[in-house]
Amino acid sequence: NYVDHDPVVSHMKQLQAPFQWRDASKSSVVDKSSDEVMGDAREFKLRDGLALPLVTLDGQIVMVSLGGESVELSDQEFGMVSLASTYAIGRAMQLHTKADGVIDHIELTARERECLQWAAVGKSEWEISQILGISEHTSEKHLLNAKSKLGAANRVQAVAEAIRRGYIS
């Protein structure tokens, strides 16, 4: 039962934010079982990796874990992988929702789409407000409304979901 002894899973439950596997090995209690899990992974040339957890709106914790012999990413690359994994999780959840027969049509306002488009390129609420000529509070409100409509737990997930649905590019 690997999941009960995997130091990456244990660390993910504590941190609930993206991290590298090596950080989990440093912070988790190492016992024989967790050592065996990581030893088995090394046999398949999985020596390092990224864990990208996401807390859903209903409180579930889901994770994409990507491994290999060596994982060295710049901050920009790490952000791109994080966005892609958020998109993948969102897509998987959407497919599951469709399989359950739930309709997922929503409408975003033009301003919500504009704010999401700027958020997608890394602009803060303040920067978005300056670009669009609105108050910072208003840009924050548009992003919160979009996040809520998209069923996103955070800003990155909202951007990924808006891209997936074709609202922004």
**What is the count of distinct domains?**
2
Major sheet: order of its strands? 1-2-3
How many beta-strand elements? 3
Q: What is the CATH superfamily of the largest domain?
A: Transcription factor LuxR-like, autoinducer-binding domain
Q: Which CATH first-tier class of the largest domain would you pick?
A: Alpha Beta
Separate helix tally: 8
- What percentage of amino acids are in beta strands? 5-15%
Mean pLDDT: 86
Largest sheet: 3 strands, antiparallel
Low-confidence parts, pLDDT < 50 over ≥5 residues?
none
Tell me what you see in this structure.
- The protein has 169 residues and is mainly α.
- It folds into two domains: 2-99, Beta-Lactamase; 110-164, Arc Repressor Mutant, subunit A, CATH 1.10.10.10.
- Helices cover 57% and strands 11% of the residues.
- The chain contains eight helices and three strands.
- The protein has helices spanning 7-15, 21-27, 32-43, 75-99, 110-120, 125-132, 136-150, 155-164, and strands spanning 19-20, 48-55, 61-68.
- It has a three-stranded antiparallel sheet with strand order 1-2-3, sandwiched between helices.
- Strand 2 (48-55) and strand 3 (61-68) form a beta hairpin.
What's this, in brief?
With 169 residues, the protein is mainly α. The chain has helices at residues 7-15, 21-27, 32-43, 75-99, 110-120, 125-132, 136-150, 155-164, and strands at residues 19-20, 48-55, 61-68. The protein folds into two domains: 2-99, Transcription factor LuxR-like, autoinducer-binding domain (Beta-Lactamase, 2-Layer Sandwich), CATH 3.30.450.80; 110-164, Winged helix-like DNA-binding domain superfamily/Winged helix DNA-binding domain (Arc Repressor Mutant, subunit A).
